Amino acid sequence: MDLSVSLGRLRLPNPVMVASGTFGYAREMQGLVDLGRLGGILPKTITKQPRPGNAPWRTIETPAGMLNSIGLDNDGIDSFLEKLMPYLASLGVPIVVSVAGRSADEFVELAQQLDGVTGVAAVELNISCPNVSGGVDFGTDPAMCEDLVRRCREATEVPILAKLTPNVTRIADMARAASAGGADALSMINTCLGMAVDWRNRRPMLGNVMGGLSGPAIKPIALRCVYQARQVTDTPIIGIGGIANINDVMEFLVAGATAVQLGTVNFYHPRASMEVLDALPGALEELSAGSVTEVVGTLNTEKK
Amino acid sequence: MPFALEAVSTSVPVVENVQLATRTYRVRIECPQIARQVVPGQFLMLKLAGNDDPLLGRAFALYDTVDDASGQPAMVDIVYLVMGKMTARLARYQPGQMLDVWGPLGNGFEVPECDRLIMVAGGIGQTPMLALGKEYLGGRSYGQPARSVHQPQHVSLLYGVRSADLVAGEADFRAAGIDLKLASDDGSVGHHGFVTELLAHTLEETTGQRRQVVCCGPEVMMERVAEVCHSAGVPCQVSLETPMACGIGICFSCVAKIRQPDGSWDYRRTCVEGPVFDAQAIEW
């Protein structure tokens, strides 16, 4: 069974990755997961400068999901490259570094700093975090998105992924824009903007009032976004959003994703990625497929 | 930093699930891998197996470990207060029903050599204190290899509750040889008032001895305990009960403001850098 997939210039041994912000910096998981089996690891988003993150509460459970407003809590790229990247590079797994800039220049600088670093297989542009001001415009304005992706591609040799937000009127426009800018792949989706209220105290539940909804609750939205993007672009898609088991993975592949990222499930079922990897060959066989790529985008929507 | 290197993630059966007090239960689970390793102050994440409602696991402190017939730690006791959906469902669990568990997690208590170990608990914050008291009285060992500890001459638990019906595990604490003193908000048991008043009194009585305070309970109570200890010049460790989503350091939810060596504060993850912190390091 051929599990390998290509996302533009990025080649992965298998399509099962773990999403940024849901896997720490991987070393937290080394006791629970055989990290070497993963198709790719996305460490928590890195910014130019250190960020303390948002005030608690930062997460709250909601029906079949959770809201988060972590706020890109991280120690900045210099600290990341010095303290965290050597360990990640030692794993022998493609490391896709998620970055967030406050401006196009900052995104470009971050991509340049990562370009050529040992172990860095690709850079994912987080143009979709709902919990910080600045940066998110790149995920909602097609012209800005296209320009940003193009600038990062022109300034570096490293494969560039664009992580899109579902919080737009037409996701297809954003998919088309990121593709036009030269993205190697589209990661979709980031969280859906939401909130939770404590009515007795008339207070928001999250310290930052609003946050991003993730988990099984958003899977149908993510599937729809992947499907719509597939209609308008040939750029490979990485499906993200509520993926928790092998059925979810297969649904995304059939809907048009070439690879997937498991996110929130890592919080409540730390070994989910391993179970998905165990089950993947059998699920492909069930469709009489000899490879992952054979099933990608094979959804039949003809009227019966 | 303990990154759950020895932690396991598995499904385990409930051995027993008994009520200890109003809305308070003790569940015993069979999980030898965790029972052999876990030390007082560490915690586990529990989730109802095969049930994604609620979706996320919940963090529970170790209450105690229990041996199998061969004398090896094989089971873990967790004491919990029924608070929401997960604990309400757990309270109805019968022997044989399964729980997802991952752990042991967090740093646990490590008490320096002292004459008196004074444990202060508020409400369900009593749960980490039984194993700690037993360990420091020489009644039971924890960890693999077993931790060696400096035994103090005296171990007490100052335990504050809202009312008498919420006192849980009193017999366990007494059987372990822990000097138990109760306080209640309504005066229905022990000292009528706050547990911090018992603490202030105890510290006055024991002036001159080498004392160590450990504390777990509501944040406002822990802050007050930290103040009382600070003004008496007594070292104090607190175990934070910050809400957690994952328990293993990957979500960055459970942060607390922790003072850094340069005097500034930074949000730090309670699950991997705690839950036990020096009280003076916390920016309340």
TrEMBL record, chain B:
Q: Does the keyword Phosphoprotein apply?
A: no
Q: Does the keyword Iron feature in the UniProt annotation?
A: yes
Instruction: State the PROSITE patterns in the record.
Output: FAD_FR (PS51384)
Could you tell me which residue ranges the FAD-binding FR-type domain spans?
7-111
| InterPro entries cross-referenced by the UniProt entry | Cbr1-like_FAD-bd_dom, Cyt_c3_hydrogenase_gsu, Dihydroorotate_DH_ele_sf, Dihydroorotate_DH_Fe-S-bd, FAD-bd_FR_type, FNR_nucleotide-bd, OxRdtase_FAD/NAD-bd, PyrK_electron_transfer
Q: Where does [2Fe-2S] cluster bind?
A: 246, 251, 254, 271
Q: Report which residue ranges the record marks as coiled coil.
A: none
Which cofactors does the annotated protein need, by name? [2Fe-2S] cluster
Question: What is the name of the protein in this document?
Answer: Dihydroorotate dehydrogenase electron transfer subunit
Q: Tell me which species this is from.
A: Aeoliella straminimaris
